[in-house]
Amino acid sequence: MSTAEKISTLLVANFGTDPLEIRPEVSLRHLCLDSLALEELRLIIEDRMGVDLDDVELTSRDTVGRLVDMVHRKAAA
Amino acid sequence: MTGRPYRPEPFAAAVTGIGMVTAAGVGAEATWRTVCEASTAPSVPHRPELHDLPCDFMYTIAGLDPRALLGVATARLMDRFSQLAVIAAREAVADAGLDPSVWDGGRVAVVIGSAHGGLPFYDEQHTTLTERGARRVSPKLAPLTVVNGAASSVATDLGALGPSQAVSTACSSGTVAIGTAHQMLRTGACDIVIAGGAESVCSRLLIASACQLKAVSTRRDDPEAACRPFDIHRDGFVVGEGAGLLVLERPEHALARGATVRAHIAGYGASSDAHSAVAPDPEGLGIERALRFALADARVAARDIGHVNAHGTSTVSNDLIEGTMLHRVLGEHPLVTSTKAMTGHTLGAAGGIEAALTVLALEHRLVPPTVNLDSPDPAIPVEVVRKEARPGTFDAAVKTSLGFGGHNAALVLTRA
């Protein structure tokens, strides 16, 4: 499963996000991920995907594509 | 008795909707049917996380999946006690025939009692903190576990834009919440209040403490028989989870919209024992004051009270003190019950659930039995209904509640 697919699965399961809405150009805010949800998402990704996102700055203005890219780079590091 | 009750003009709040989710059933009618018809308690499961405690069982709501009922996106922003409150609130509002998409939200208030809020999540996250470190602690702990979480969740879910607040007076929280709502309506601060209690405390930490306190039953070999209010062999309460909410309205508001009024909250009284952090006043003088205040507030005479849904926790001291007090104030005639053997002691939710059951008792003129009351304690002088539900001709009923810390509350409810 690709990083994008893994993140999509986590968003659907944990945040009830509509899978059809999860596209690279869509902002996290559009997916109703506020500051609380982003911190929760950070923990979930770290736990499930074994990456450390402590130094990653994540805001609701970021897109799904940027999130996937950041996680992918951390996983590859 | 000390204290002179404040006696404003009489005011009866209309009960136009009820919602319940309990171990006895999901929904008010399901709960009522089980409470009236079942001869034994629902399954009271042993909990693996409590396996080494003297009390390892509690009443839980079997098969309830809040994520499925509310949706993942909504449910994830609520602790379980808030989820139960929202489920009960949606039922109560629908029962009242209210449509939140068109109501004047600024005139709708929410008052929900809870003793412990999101304590189980605290318990779980403390383990995370000690075992995995601060960076693994959930950011949701602080905003979701606050005692006002149920009130804010219900207000958000329904679009109630008036005042919303929590009441926390331990095991009388739900009753005090309804009394507070009664007072808010009386002052005209709002037209509608969604009021009651919600609790879910499957917490190893809390049950360990309750065991140390020797407040809970240790009947591990027969959990379904452990909660036995007013029985000579009672040995403590059994914790349960649940929520019970009423929709209360100013009577003219209910009348104007043609609502069906199910009952009235006619009077409310509250008092403090100022005696102990745990034990009730040994003579029951505090709960007596609350009950007398409620009767005076309702302008209902003791002889006209036909039914009492008692606090009846199944502890040795509560049932004796409360039963003796009820006899002293009301006499021998009221049909008394405790429904906790069917729901467990839901702590801050108990007053909400039991007030809703009292509304149904008034409607049906039927008093649910006190399950597990096999050998009535001869020292308790009141008439406790047991074995099966008993019909009566009463038009007024009482709900009493006592909380750790000496918080007493009583409601007088009357038939519509």
Summary, kept brief:
The complex is a heterodimer of chains A (77) and B (416). Chain A has 77 residues and is mainly α.
How would the blueprint of this fold be written?
The complex is a heterodimer of chains A (about 80) and B (about 425).
Chain A: H1 3-15, H2 35-49, H3 64-76
Helix pairs in contact in A: 1-2
Chain B: E1 13-22, E2 25-26, H1 28-37, H2 66-70, H3 72-75, H4 80-95, E3 108-113, H5 119-132, H6 141-144, H7 149-158, E4 164-167, H8 173-187, E5 192-199, H9 204-212, E6 242-249, H10 251-256, E7 263-272, H11 285-298, E8 307-309, H12 316-330, E9 335-337, H13 340-343, H14 350-364, E10 366-367, E11 383-384, E12 390-391, E13 396-403, E14 407-415
Parallel strand pairs in B: 3-4, 3-5, 8-9, 8-13, 9-11
Antiparallel strand pairs in B: 1-2, 1-6, 1-7, 5-6, 7-14, 10-12, 13-14
Assign the CATH architecture of chain B. 3-Layer(aba) Sandwich
Order of helices and strands of chain A: HHH
Record field, number of beta strands of chain B: 14
Any idea of the CATH topology of chain B?
Peroxisomal Thiolase, Chain A, domain 1
Q: How much helical structure, as a percent, in the residues of chain B?
A: 25-40%
- What is the fourth-level CATH superfamily of chain A? ACP-like
Low-confidence stretches of chain A: none
* DSSP strand content of chain B: 15-25%
* Strand residue content of chain A: under 5%
Number of helices of chain A: 3
Q: Supply the helix-strand structural class of chain B.
A: alpha/beta
Could you tell me the radius of gyration of chain B in angstroms? 20 Å
User: How many individual β-strands of chain A?
Assistant: 0
What is the residue-mean pLDDT of chain A, rounded to a whole number?
A: 94
What is the C-alpha radius of gyration of chain A, as a whole number of Å?
Answer: 11 Å
Per DSSP, the total helix count of chain B is 14
Estimated helix fraction of chain A: 40-55%
Question: Strand count, sense and closure of the main sheet of chain B?
Answer: 12 strands, mixed
